[in-house]
Amino acid sequence: MKLSDYAITLQSCIECGVCDDVCPVTEITDKYSPSKKIRDAQDILDGRELKEEQIDNIYACMRCRACEAVCSEDIQISEIVRLARKEIVKLGKEPESHRKISENVLNLGASIHKEPSERLKWTEKSFFKPSAEYVYMTGCFASMINTNIARSTVKILREAGVDFTILGDREVCCGSFAWDNGKDEIVSENAKKNKRAIESVGSKKIVAACATCHRIYSHVYPSIIDWDIQEMNIIEFIYNLIKEDKIKFKNDKNETEKTVVIHKACNIEEDIFKMASEIIREIPGIRLVELEKNRCCGAPAGVKPKFPDVSIEIGSKTLKDAEKEADLLVTTCPFCNFQFSDVKRRKGYNIKILDLPELVANAIG
């Protein structure tokens, strides 16, 4: 798709401003908004030279799709933003922070500036098998930042008797950052690398640690390469293991008793989020409460590196709401977990933060 394919769609905007009312970025600053992004994209199509504040506005977007959920004209604003960024790259006006991260995704195989060997530091030899039914795709943040998420997942899979392996340094970033920024060729290259690595262990089935990776594997890869790999989000996989009675929780409420709020990652489907909530309710001693407002964590699609203050303030609003209600915030994506942990450190919040596999692994004992 090209931005020009949305020429008629852009003109359908009735400028009602409803999208601005739900945007997490606009909640922090009125300098940036979805409605302005529509006008900025139109300027690109009309060949007008963009001002610096217009470029900033297009990049001040997590592509969380909150705006799309309320748009009466069904305008795909997040995709328009992605394609507008592609045009900005062609003009040579891409933010330097975004250019460097995209280079990391291609050259290092990670959206983080770390060498591939970093993916091995949490592993043991027993995690690797020459062949297996499933491949656990750890993603960048579970294998390089909060490695307890990956270790917890391995514990769960072993407890349930799942025939699985990991790829270690042969796994590369799914390419979500590059996709968010219109660099389809990088995503295609990484998709081919991941497919070769998965097939090298005789598998056609993967389990994704990350909600964003899950979306890329299930929606993007099939549209850009010959992708015949069956993919499942780790939450859905855990849910099925519980329903099949392959996972047993300790019946010790004193160890697990706490009030929990769960955060819905932008890239997680509604049915999988419901599964996450059901999993938590299965754990003895847990009381699950709703977040006052579920908003994007504030980090995706390059907002965190380019607009760090805005990113932190968005995450802070969620943690402030969560602390009013609960002892523990459970995330449904390792990247959200990274963001909220960073916000907690910077802002001094006390609430405990765990990703869902960590909570489940603790409850298994």
Walk me through what this model shows.
The chain is of the alpha/beta class and 365 residues long. It has 3 domains: 3-93, Fumarate Reductase Iron-sulfur Protein, Chain B, domain 2 (Orthogonal Bundle); 99-240, 3-Layer(aba) Sandwich (Rossmann fold), CATH 3.40.50.1860; 248-364, Rossmann fold. It has helices at 7-11, 18-22, 24-28, 34-45, 52-59, 66-70, 77-90, 96-107, 139-144, 147-159, 176-180, 184-199, 211-224, 234-243, 253-256, 270-282, 303-306, 308-325, 334-347, 356-364, and strands at residues 134-137, 164-165, 205-208, 230-233, 258-262, 286-289, 328-331, 352-355. It has a 4-stranded parallel beta sheet. The model has no long low-confidence stretch (mean pLDDT 96).
List the helices and strands and how they pair.
Layout: H1 7-11, H2 18-22, H3 24-28, H4 34-45, H5 52-59, H6 66-70, H7 77-90, H8 96-107, E1 134-137, H9 139-144, H10 147-159, E2 164-165, H11 176-180, H12 184-199, E3 205-208, H13 211-224, E4 230-233, H14 234-243, H15 253-256, E5 258-262, H16 270-282, E6 286-289, H17 303-306, H18 308-325, E7 328-331, H19 334-347, E8 352-355, H20 356-364
Parallel strand pairs: 1-2, 1-3, 3-4, 5-6, 5-7, 7-8
Short description:
The chain has 365 residues and is of the alpha/beta class.
